[in-house]
From TrEMBL:
Subcellular location: Cell membrane; Membrane
UniProt record, GO biological process: transmembrane transport
Pfam families: BPD_transp_1
Entries under PANTHER family matching the protein: OLIGOPEPTIDE TRANSPORT SYSTEM PERMEASE PROTEIN
Family statement: Belongs to the binding-protein-dependent transport system permease family.
Full protein name: Peptide ABC transporter permease
Keyword Transport set for record: yes
All copies of domain ABC transmembrane type-1, residue ranges: 132-343
A GO cellular-component term linked to this record: plasma membrane
Signal peptide positions on this chain: none
């Protein structure tokens, strides 16, 4: 039997290089999943088109229109001015619905979302741009804090299952079931009215002008602390419960038993193996929750009189300001779609099995 070994100049390939499953897996993992990315892109493009089309149709199915509501509040408007307003808002009855739809897409591609009747015919983009930072700053910060605390706490509670720490799960879950408006009113009654630690509402003090100064920033932080805390308390239970349940599932896996049998430190097993795999569904949920940040918490903004997107949408609905409603809905839709895309990419990156299955 020949025992000849391949040399550096031997043209014959090494069997270990071409024949092992591990090598094939590495090569397959290195390829860019064009089919997966293409299918996702087509799906989200169709979803975006459907959302924009529904956003165009729904206001036109409602009784009356924005101009009728505006004329009811301002009776000194001439018929000619009313017709000009309808043409400006894309509600001209002389044009068919399909022509209005094409005009809507034409304005949309130019970044023109129309004008807001409730805000003195200001462009909708300016109105939304003024309210968006307040919602993203407050709700975004509170969401990140609640996700971090809930995920880390849930992982540790799951690791120490059966200990006294388990009592945290029913407590945080109970706080999450309290209606948000009641939780907000209770926080205002205790910390604002009785203890006087925080202001009752608004985003900054009366008489202050928004500017980049230490005094204004301190006012914003002071006014935003209480609503941020209520958001964290209301959402903490879901993150903690979800992470704890995933930890219980992962801890029963064979690789955790093997890692512990090899004598690995508990800290490495907890964070390097168990929590790393249990956090995958949490990351996808977190990415989706980031999309809904733009929608804000309407009830929170009502209770604390906070000038965010949620309150803006409520005012636009009550005032039948359809252009502003469409603009807010469009921003929320795009943010949710972007969050879904980020969730798909993050999940496929962290768990290649998902990418390979869908491709």
């Amino acid at each position: 039997m020949s025992t000849e070994q391949p040399t550096m100049t031997d043209p014959r390939p090494d069997a270990l290089e071409v024949g092992t499953t591990a090598t094939k897996a590495v090569k397959a993992r290195a390829r860019i999943p064009w089919r997966f990315l293409g299918s996702r892109a087509l799906f989200y493009l169709f979803t975006l088109w459907a959302a924009i089309t529904i956003n165009f149709i729904l206001p036109r199915m409602m009784k009356g229109d924005a101009v009728d509501a505006y004329l009811a509040r301002n009776r000194n408007i001439s018929p000619e001015a009313a017709d000009a307003l309808r043409a400006l808002l894309g509600l001209d009855t002389d044009r068919s619905l399909f022509q209005q739809y094409l005009d809507y897409w034409s304005h949309l591609l130019r970044g023109d979302l129309g004008v807001s009747l409730l805000h003195g015919l200001r462009p909708v983009t300016e109105v939304i741009a003024g309210a968006l930072p307040w919602t993203v700053g407050l709700v975004g910060f509170a969401t990140i804090v609640s996700f971090t605390i809930g995920t880390l706490g849930g992982a540790f509670i799951g690791w120490r299952r059966g200990s006294r720490l388990d009592v945290m799960i029913p407590i945080t879950t109970f706080l999450s079931t309290i209606p948000y408006f009641w939780l907000g009113l209770l926080a205002i009654a205790v910390f604002s009215v009785n203890l006087k630690w925080f202001p009752i509402g608004k985003a900054y003090g009366v008489g202050m002008k928004p500017e980049w100064s230490a005094e204004f920033i301190s006012q914003v932080i002071h006014h935003g602390t209480l609503p941020a805390l209520t958001i964290v308390i209301a959402s903490l239970g879901g993150w903690m419960l979800g992470m704890r349940n995933m930890m219980l599932t992962v801890l029963d896996e064979d690789y955790i038993t093997v890692a512990q049998a090899k004598g690995m430190p508990d800290r490495k097993v907890l964070w390097g193996y168990a929590a790393r795999n249990a956090v995958l569904p949490q990351i996808q949920s977190f990415a989706l929750s980031l999309g809904f940040i733009v929608g804000g918490t309407i009830v929170m903004e009502m209770v604390f009189s906070y000038p965010g997107i949620g309150k803006l949408l409520l005012d636009a609905t009550n005032g039948k300001d359809y252009a502003l409603m469409q603009g807010v809905f469009l921003v929320i839709t795009i943010s949710v779609l972007i969050a879904n895309i980020l969730a798909d990419v993050a999940y496929a990156f962290l768990d290649p099995r998902t990418r390979q299955t869908e491709a």
